[in-house]
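Page 47, continued from p. 46.
Same chain as before, 254 aa.
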Amino acid sequence: MKAIKLKLYQNMVNYKVPTSFQLKESYPLPPYSTVIGMVHSLCDFKEYKPMKISISGSYFSKVNDLYTRYEFKNGNPFETGRHQLNVNGYGINRGVATAELLVDVNLTIHIIPEDQSGEFLNTIFEAFKYPREYPSLGRREDIVLIKDVRIVDVEKKEIEEDLENGEEVFAYIPLSFVYDEKVEFGNPTSGIHVCGTRYELTKNYELKNIGTKAKPKFIREWKKEEVLYSSNITALEEEIVPIDEDNEIVFCEL
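Result:
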């Protein structure tokens, strides 16, 4: 099986947690949907292309930054003294809020499209090798430096000896890796069997009509995947784990 392997760097970035508002919190690594959105944007895809994603990486520190926040309610008329902006008679509030930023982010991403044809793989490869615009991951202003892009082989194989991913490298580990005890992670000497943070990450969505045929109203119905975020990851001897041609663990089910 083929994958497009990316090595990325970002100076400061926010991968927004959807349920955070006054403080715009960030995930420690980009969610699947964020990466898939970047792929579709750079490739100029007009419809969803199924793909599997593996995400690992690290960041140096966190800082908080201020940003301008706009709030409005549908159909709310402008009122002097209450709203700061008047847009065609509708009122908008403008204020200041805080965003959590990750500093010096390094990422390794594997993109494994369902369509394994050479033409489709090359389309994604060319989109990252020669991007049509400055690529971003996270917010629009979170520019990505593409350090390396390659097409690599990925296969599930039995590990002959323990394969370590490095203490400083974190990853989103699929729960199947945990339940099947394919990997060991965290600090085994601490006595804690499972050491990590559990996330339910968005991946892709379908439009669902919650209105009527005459007056349709569509919402996004998200498909989500549960993962554990942890570091110090080791693929265990004699276990069958996805590995790329560089002998690095690929964190997704093939």
